[in-house]
Amino acid sequence: VQLQASGGGLVQAGGSLRLSCAASGRTFSNKSMGWFRQAPGKEREFVATINWSGGATYYTDSVSGRFTISRDNAKNTMYLQMNSLKPEDTAVYYCAAGRASWLARTSPDYGYWGQGTLVTVSS
């Protein structure tokens, strides 16, 4: 079972990036999924989660209105569209698959983790 995050890179403040998380080895279409991030010198924090069907989402306050989480269960892939990026969004972004089907906001709620993709926002 593998989660592969991609799409990170260097972008100027105000720009956009789209992260992808492709799952292989098994399907997660009946599980929630989420994004976390870890900035240099800080603990990993929750960013966004989506339920099994994609019909419900939840965001941390600092990204609400700027980031959009989505999923395509037919492709076993999750996305994070990040707009209006700020320097404080700089971090390694990790995707994760939940242990259950409903929204999940804490690390223990997730059983599988991707390797992370670096997002750097310059001012």
Give the topology.
Elements: E1 2-6, E2 9-12, E3 17-24, E4 33-38, E5 45-50, E6 57-59, E7 67-72, E8 77-82, E9 91-98, E10 110-113, E11 117-122
Parallel strand pairs: 2-11
Antiparallel strand pairs: 1-3, 3-8, 4-5, 4-9, 5-6, 7-8, 9-10, 9-11
Question: What gross morphology would you assign?
Answer: globular
For the biggest sheet, the summary is:
7 strands, mixed
Alpha-beta classification: mainly beta
Number of β-strand runs = 11
What is the residue-averaged pLDDT? 96
Q: What this model shows, in words?
A:
With 123 residues, this protein is mostly beta strands. Helices cover 0% and strands 50% of the residues. The protein contains no helices and 11 strands. The strands form 2 sheets. Strands 2, 4, 5, 6, 9, 10 and 11 form a 7-stranded mixed β-sheet that branches. The protein is globular, with a radius of gyration of 13 Å. It starts with a strand and ends with a strand. The model has no long low-confidence stretch (mean pLDDT 96).
Features:
123 residues; mainly beta; seven-stranded mixed β-sheet; four-stranded antiparallel β-sheet; 0% helix; globular
Summarize the structure.
The chain is mainly β. It is 0% helix and 50% strand.
